[in-house]
Amino acid sequence: MGELPLDINIQEPRWDQSTFLGRARHFFTVTDPRNLLLSGAQLEASRNIVQNYRAGVVTPGLTEDQLWRAKYAYDSAFHPDTGEKMVLIGRMSAQVPMNMTITGCMLTFYRQTPTVVFWQWVNQSFNAVVNYSNRSGDAPISVGQLGTAYVSATTGAVATALGLKSLTKHLPALVGRFVPFAAVAAANCINTPLMRQRELQVGIPVTDEESQRLGHSVAAAKQGIFQVVISRICMAIPAMAIPPVIMDTLEKKDFLKRRPWLGAPLQVGLVGFCLVFATPLCCALFPQRSSLHVSRLEPELRARIHEQNPDIEVVYYNKGL
To answer: H or E stretch including 163?
Structure first.
């Protein structure tokens, strides 16, 4: 076997991102919970392989499959723009195990106000970590901005959950089971923009097709955040809409009436099964490297791009996750 060639483009995902199937295969790999089991030494080894290859140095004996495995291990733990190692629960590979636990508990303990408040707080705390870890761009965010965004998002989620809970008090029990989903959907519309407010203030990096940075755009940030909010809401639909219907039916059966302790683990299991598929498929709704026509950029940036390279019609940016 000869040495691995240097023309493999590991700047891009392995599969064609212009198709939904290609993006789905990519995100099934990115969100694979097994990535969480990789040790610090394994992640460092993957980072060295990737960085060496990008620098034109091939690790002796490296195969193409090993290179791609290293790339996805590296991508699962390190931020694409800043290069910093993300906190464990903020990684996309933690989405399924964390969300199945939190969502399962939200759907199980939805009747009492204290438990509604507690699990909405836990959920928004987790979302805040995820939104910060998977933000777009490399602009620094102050502790004060993070604190304000976190408090605002958590307060909004709890208020929405309690408001809807009071409105559905006299409606059928099945309707009440959907309150957590409505609260999560509303909170995503609050939490994601707030935790990424810095992008809405200074913009995110936009590049040409060759990944050469052209400037920062707020318009790109708005489009990217909107796409992420839509993906997050869609991601929650199967996990928060299917299990309540199943559990409402099962709880009327003698089997669960005699074993009420099975309710919570069964709910968590159902949510987990839905999330295994919903998480990567909904992440795949929009390309990770999204595009925006130059005509939709800010006038100053648009003029600068036309002055430097009048042939550029589309710019690209990392939308975040």
So the answer is: helix 143-167
